[in-house]
Amino acid sequence: MRANQFAFAFGIFALIVGIIVDIYGLVTQFGSLDSAQVVLIGSIILAIGLAFLSLPNRWERYAGQLVVGLGLLYYFYIQTNKWWVAVIIAIIAMALMEYGLKHR
User: Fold this and answer.
1) Cβ neighbours, 10 Å, residue 79
2) Phi then psi for 30, rounded to 5 degrees?
3) Cα separation of 33 and 30, whole Å?
4) In the predicted model, is pLDDT for residue 1 greater than 70?
């Protein structure tokens, strides 16, 4: 039981830190490569938090995956400057994340 409590607490902590890092990345120098890298780090932290929470198929998990996907979309759009490349990479990453969370 203690392991589950730790995983839940760490998941909540990672979600909060990831959201704060994402907001900080968007607010500082919006549209720059530095901002995109900070948002990517925040999205990775959010994905780790989602993995530790082990949420069932509910709107909370899908909302978290959407935020991670939007962060990846922002990063790859700034990196490549092509929206279609960013969309394809974000969709593939979200599908892999969904598969991993579902079969965890």
Assistant:
1) 15
2) -55, 130
3) 9
4) no
Going from the C-alpha of 59 to that of each of 6, 29, 62, 68, 86, the distances in angstroms are 23, 31, 5, 14, 24
Statement: residue 2 has pLDDT above 90: no
- Which distant-in-sequence residues (6+ apart) come within 8 Å of 39 by Cβ? 21, 22, 25, 26, 71, 74, 75
Evaluate whether 71 touches 94 at the Cβ level (below 8 Å).
no
This prediction has a pTM of: 0.84
88 close to 50: Cβ distance less than 8 angstroms: no
Which two three-digit tokens encode residue 58? 């509910």
Give pLDDT tens digits for 54-101. Answer: 777 778 888 888 899 999 999 999 988 889 999 999 999 988 888 887
Residue 20 makes CB contacts below 8 A (sequence gap 6+) with: 42
